[in-house]
Amino acid sequence: MSHIHAGSCLCNAVTFELEGEFTKFFLCHCSRCRKTSGTAHCANLFASGATLNWLSGEDKLSFYRLEDTNFARTFCSVCGSNMPTDAKARGLVVVPAGCLDTEVDITPQAHIFMDSKGNWDENLGDIPTYEGLPS
């Protein structure tokens, strides 16, 4: 059975379709992911052997690879949204969960690189939650 996932950036300049199944879902707290996301972690899905098709805006994509590492990011040059990275050499596509417009049928499997998490990333589950912006 083939799984088709669709996604886009915030400004909708870039749209894509991914054919394949997500086999891993990690919340990465490494300093690199924190810097590129501006948050406590990146939520990345991994699809081995998937096919990534850019439907629009491929010319709007920018790519960054941190020298001498496997760390790379693809992002919209207009709005800055993280977009999928086709890591052909590794045989997988890495998809930021937040750029998907379709449902994800897998839940996060682990928090990773917790040894480099931000010092403020403690007991986040203990703070109040709101349906919207608090008054």
From TrEMBL:
GO molecular function: carbon-sulfur lyase activity; metal ion binding
InterPro entries: CENP-V/GFA, Mss4-like_sf
Highest classification ranks of the organism: Bacteria, Pseudomonadati, Pseudomonadota, Gammaproteobacteria, Oceanospirillales
Annotated CENP-V/GFA domain residues: 5-121
UniProt KW Metal-binding keyword: yes
The family this protein is said to belong to: Belongs to the Gfa family.
Keyword entries, A-Z: Lyase, Metal-binding, Zinc
Source species of the chain: Marinomonas alcarazii
Listed name of the protein: CENP-V/GFA domain-containing protein
